[in-house]
């Protein structure tokens, strides 16, 4: 039965323990041995059970508690975690202003950005360092383009032009979220188009000559660093995913039996499947006894409990130790290596390759293909690619590029 004003008032404490009186829709009254009474809401978000404190009786009446419960449930239906939103308001140090830029930005991040809750999430870090200190407390609808530009100029002054462009892009996403949730009239960031210095093109050094690839693979086999790093280096060329996705690989996403790795691509917010060649599977099976009890396949060496993944510099630093500086080869460069050789030497269909690179590929009607598109063919391609790399490493005859053939 649901609570009544009479039953809440009449609830007596027990001497030895706290107890709950249930209301409706997840709300309950928690009665402590000292006689204090608290309204709480139990709810689930992203598969996790959570509790939201609604207030203390009698300062908060039963009706007021239900109103707060209904408001929290509305937030849940909109995809917002009410507990995290409350933390965002506290973090922003804005006096109950749910329209403050920082509050809106943290709400947007919590709802829209993959792994926002991680301490070093890049989007969150950019906002915390470059935007929140100057305009975080200000109501988002009162912010002018000039104030955004002042933040961007500070970033530019540090010589990080590309970062300034990225900060502007993130601010635009926050403003569009504010418009969608009724807290801003329009996105003002397009007013700043052309105001920043042009972004510098980002180039990731890569080796695509099969003869030099063979030398690199043999060097990787001789790596003398930690075992997880050595495994990551060996797997990287065979799966050719983005380095951030490789280092944050989780055991729960890997199916050894079906030889598949399924995860969310952070760049496109889409599900992706990586067929695992037998060579990759063997490496993972060998590594599992060492890191399999933790969350990450490649945990940080500085975090013994395994709750953080390998740092973003580890693989490039390992390549540098092997004599491959960032001007010669990078962890990201394995993608260009695979794209080039799979097409030019092994002559796989470009759309198979693009699917496996997790690029946005569309069908003739302009619709995005789903993650299982050409999966059988991609499995064959990934095994053929791993076999080809093994043959290169063993000194097999190198096939020429098709556009170089006589």
Keywords:
3 domains, DNA polymerase, domain 1, 3-stranded antiparallel beta sheet, globular, 4-stranded antiparallel beta sheet, hpI Integrase, Chain A, alpha+beta
Can you describe this structure?
This protein is of the alpha+beta class. It is 45% helix and 10% strand. Helix 4 (101-112) crosses helix 8 (161-180). It is globular, with a radius of gyration of 27 Å.
Write a compact overview of the structure shown.
With 406 residues, this protein is of the alpha+beta class. Helix content is 45%, strand content 10%. It folds into three domains: 5-77, 2-Layer Sandwich (Double Stranded RNA Binding Domain); 84-192, DNA polymerase, domain 1; 210-404, hpI Integrase, Chain A.
Secondary structure blueprint with pairings:
Blueprint: H1 5-10, E1 19-22, E2 27-31, E3 37-45, E4 48-57, H2 62-77, H3 82-92, H4 101-112, H5 122-130, H6 132-135, H7 145-157, H8 161-180, H9 210-221, H10 227-239, H11 243-247, E5 254-255, E6 260-265, E7 270-275, H12 278-291, H13 314-321, H14 333-344, H15 350-356, H16 375-393
Antiparallel strand pairs: 1-2, 2-3, 3-4, 5-6, 6-7
DSSP summary: helix tally: 16
Corresponding CATH architecture of the largest domain: Orthogonal Bundle
Query: Which blocks of ≥5 consecutive residues have pLDDT under 50?
Result: none
**SS class:** alpha+beta
CATH fold descriptor of the largest domain: hpI Integrase, Chain A
